[in-house]
């Protein structure tokens, strides 16, 4: 078993409040791993620690065997570990093609200049079109981003993330705010992009988690409560109790 991302003793305190407490986490290469748990469990904090948007109080994080504990998000992105929406938002007035082009250009560490001619940017066209096809947006290639339906915007955001050539993708609630049709479409897309990449996602939609995840870590009150396949964790009494308990909070 090859490990892509490994956290050891990961801890985050906010003024004495322990939001993430001594978490050990191993994400196997090539798998889809979900981080779940009731409200306030520490999922977002944990996600922000792993993606380096927050500094841990204690603990270490390794990506592909390399210590990334003190690295910045942009540095780990260059190592191949990319968070969704890392390159901020979509430009609403640019087309789908232009947005992915910009992402490709930024992925190379060049800053984006609005005055840059279309001719210079067009050298990214072929690769941009490949990503657009990969996320199923071919028919929207020349649409303005602002005109896309919500689920398609999400797909575009994923395309711009893929433009950074990640080996590992970290997705923060990829299904948030989506209707059923979009959930199905984005689920398929995540499965597809995971064929040759590692995926870690924080997700509230448990049927999505059940469908997609090879392995699931359940957090509660900042600690790992259970870990395993969906079948395993959904039968664990402590998990059932944590979810039922939380719904009465
Ligand atoms: N910047 C902060 N300062 C103080 N406390 C914080 C901060 N960020 C998070 N917390 C606290 O840490 C705990 C865990 O929060 P976190 O957002 O990580 O949980 P979560 O599992 O993502 O919850 P949800 O499912 O509701 O998004 C909560 O009690 C929260 O109030």
From TrEMBL:
One of its GO terms (molecular function) is ATP binding. Signal peptide: none annotated. CDD domains: ABC_Mj1267_LivG_branched. Residues 5-246 form the ABC transporter domain. It comes from the Bacteria. SUPFAM superfamilies: P-loop containing nucleoside triphosphate hydrolases (SSF52540). This is Amino acid/amide ABC transporter ATP-binding protein 1, HAAT family. It comes from Primorskyibacter flagellatus.
């Amino acid at each position: 078993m090859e490990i892509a991302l490994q956290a050891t003793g990961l801890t985050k305190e906010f003024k004495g409040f322990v939001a993430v407490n001594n978490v050990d986490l191993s994400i196997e290469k090539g798998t889809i791993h979900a981080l779940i748990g009731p409200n306030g469990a520490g999922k977002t904090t944990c996600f922000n620690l792993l993606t380096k948007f927050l500094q841990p109080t204690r603990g270490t994080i390794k990506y592909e065997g390399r210590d990334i504990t003190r690295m910045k998000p942009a540095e780990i992105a260059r190592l191949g570990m990319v968070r969704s929406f890392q390159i901020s938002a979509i430009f609403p007035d640019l087309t789908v093609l232009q947005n992915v082009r910009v992402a490709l250009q930024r992925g190379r560490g060049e800053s984006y200049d609005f005055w840059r001619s279309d001719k210079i940017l067009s050298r990214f066209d072929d690769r941009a079109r490949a990503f657009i096809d990969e996320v199923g947006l071919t028919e929207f290639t020349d649409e303005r981003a602002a005109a896309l339906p919500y689920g398609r915007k999400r797909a575009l955001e994923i395309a711009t993330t893929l433009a950074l050539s990640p080996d590992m993708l970290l997705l923060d609630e990829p299904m948030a705010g989506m209707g059923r049709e979009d959930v199905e479409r984005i689920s398929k897309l995540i499965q597809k992009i995971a064929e040759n990449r590692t995926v870690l996602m924080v997700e509230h939609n448990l049927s999505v988690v059940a469908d997609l995840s090879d392995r699931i870590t359940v957090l509660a009150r900042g600690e790992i409560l259970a870990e395993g396949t969906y079948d395993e964790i959904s039968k664990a009494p402590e998990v059932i109790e944590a979810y039922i308990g939380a719904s009465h909070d």
